[in-house]
Amino acid sequence: MKFGIRKPSIRKSISARTSLKRQTIHRFGLKMPRGYGWLRDPKKATYNKVYNKTTVSFWSLLKKLFK
């Protein structure tokens, strides 16, 4: 598990926004309500919850500095 600042990756952020899987789920309305990720994949949901609480985004730090 990672602690601290996450290293930004422009390639990964672009591929996540333009992925075919995400687009098809969006178009066909197969989305689940926010917070229901634990129904689809509980192991991944718990990992993501811990990861997001223990790490900080590089971009959020920049926003705080220049606010």
Please tell me the total number of domains: 1
What is the H/E string? Answer: EHHHHEH
Shape: extended
The counted number of beta strands is 2
Task: Please bin the fraction of helical residues.
Answer: 55-70%
* Average of pLDDT: 87
Number of helices: 5
User: Main sheet: which strands, in order across?
Assistant: 1-2
Structural class: mainly alpha
State the end-to-end CA separation.
Answer: 30 Å
The radius of gyration over CA amounts to 15 Å
Low-confidence stretches: none
Brief write-up:
The protein has helices spanning 10-17, 20-27, 37-40, 42-54, 58-65, and strands spanning 4-5, 55-56. It is mainly α.
What order do the helices and strands come in, and which of them pair?
Elements: E1 4-5, H1 10-17, H2 20-27, H3 37-40, H4 42-54, E2 55-56, H5 58-65
Structure notes:
- The structure is a single chain.
- The chain is mainly α and 67 residues long.
- It has one domain (4-65).
- The protein has 5 helices and 2 strands, in the order E-H-H-H-H-E-H.
- The protein has a two-stranded parallel ribbon.
- The radius of gyration is 15 Å and the shape is extended.
- The mean pLDDT is 87.
